[in-house]
Amino acid sequence: MSSTTASGDGTPSLHFDTPTLDRELAALLHSISEHGGYAYVSMAALAAGGDIRAAEAACEMAWEQLHSGPWHSVLPVWRDAYSMACLHVARHHYGNGEFREALRVLDLGIIMGGTLLRKDLDSAVAKVSEQARRTVRVSELGDSGHRFVDRDFNMAEVLQLLPIKSLSSTLVVKKSALSLDKFLKDHYLSRSPVIIRDCMAHWPASSKWNDEDYLLRVAGDRTVPVEVGKNYLCAEWKQELITFSEFIQRIKSGACSLGGPTYLAQHPLFEQINELRKDIFIPDYCFAGGGELRSLNAWFGPAGTVTPLHHDPHHNILAQVVGKKYIRLYSSSLSEELSPHSGTMLSNSSQVVDLDDVDERKFPKVQELEFVDCILEEGEMLYIPPKWWHYVRSLTTSFSVSFWWSEGDNSDAS
Ligand SMILES: O=C(O)CCC(=O)C(=O)O
Fold this sequence. Notes:
This protein is α+β, with helices and mostly antiparallel strands. The protein has helices spanning 19-34, 38-48, 52-66, 76-95, 99-112, 118-135, 155-161, 180-188, 204-208, 212-219, 244-252, 269-272, 274-277; strands at residues 2-6, 12-16, 170-171, 174-176, 194-197, 223-228, 238-243, 262-267, 293-301, 306-310, 315-322, 325-330, 372-376, 381-384, 389-394, 398-405.
C-alpha cells in the first residue's frame, strides 16, 4: 500500500495510497458542491494535485463547517470532506519525512472526520507509524522504567476524599471464576451488579499498561481527545486534542493544577490505536443474553477524576486494568429520587452532581437512598446493569476499559 516513489530530483520520497478516496473522489466532490461547498471543491482539486497550501485551506474550510453548530447537526458530507483534506495534508508531510505531523493530521481525520475514508486513514496511520518506528534512534526509545501505579496506597487518606457513607453499608459482591451460566442467572437477568475477579490475567494489557515506556512507544505520537476540568457538568470543563505523550506528561505532573484533571474519557481508543486493541479481549460475559457489543471505550487519567452520577442504556462491564477506582451504584428504580436533568443532552445525569457536596436543602432525601459501592481493584471487572446510576472517582492513576452491549431479542430480563 505504501510505496517509495522517485521525486522530481530523483531522490526517493514516501507515499501512501488512498484507494477509497481515489474511487469516491468524484462523487464526494459532487456531493460537497451540492451542499454549497464550491470553494472547498476547488481547493480540494488543487490539493489532489499536490498543492499543500490548497490542502491546508480545504482542511480549514471543512474544520469551520464541523464547528458551525452542534455536533449532531453537522452534515456527514463535511466530515468526509475533512477526512479527505487531512489525507492530502498528511500525504505531503509523509513525503517530507515529517512523520509526527503526518500522524497528527491523520488522527484528526480519524477523530473528527467521517466514516467514508476511514480505511484509507487507518492504513495510512499504519504505514506512517511503521516508517516512523524504523527511523527512531535508540536514544529516543524510552527507558524511564516509570510505572504509573506502585503498591503504595493510603486507604485512610483516600477515605477522606470519598462521599459521605462510602464503604460503610453494602459492598458490591465480588466473585471469582464466575461461570457464564451463573452470571446470566444471578446478575444479568436479575439486574444485579457484581465484581468478577481473576478474569483478566491473560490480557497483555494487565502487564503492559502500567508501563509508561510501553504506552509511549505504541501511542506517544498519536493525538487523542481529552477532557479538562472537574467534571463534564462544570462550566469550566473543556475538551482538547493533545498527543498521548503530552497527556502522559500531564498525568505525571499532577495535572490537577490546571483547573482540574485531564481525563481521556469515554473515547473509542481501541478503534484508533490498533496496538492497544491487541492488548485486550472482549469478556465472554458481554455475549450473555445474545445482545450486540455496542462500544469499547477507554478511561485513562490521574487520581482524582470524577465521572458524575449518571446512567447509561446498555449493559456494561467496566474492566480495571491499572489502578483503583471508587464506584457507587444506585438502582435504576431510584431514578425519580435522583432528579435527572431535564434537558435531553443531560437527561441521564443527576442534578445531585457532586456526591461529596450534596445540597441537603434541595435534595433532603438523597443521603438516605440505598446504594452499593466498592473499590474496583486492578484485574477486576464490574458489571453495571442498564440504567443503574453510577458515580466513579479514580483513587490512583487509572486505566479502565468499558464494554457496552445491548439487550438480545431473546433476553428474558425482569
Ligand atoms: O470510569 C469512569 O470514570 C466512568 C465509567 C462509566 O461511566 C461507564 O463505563 O459507563
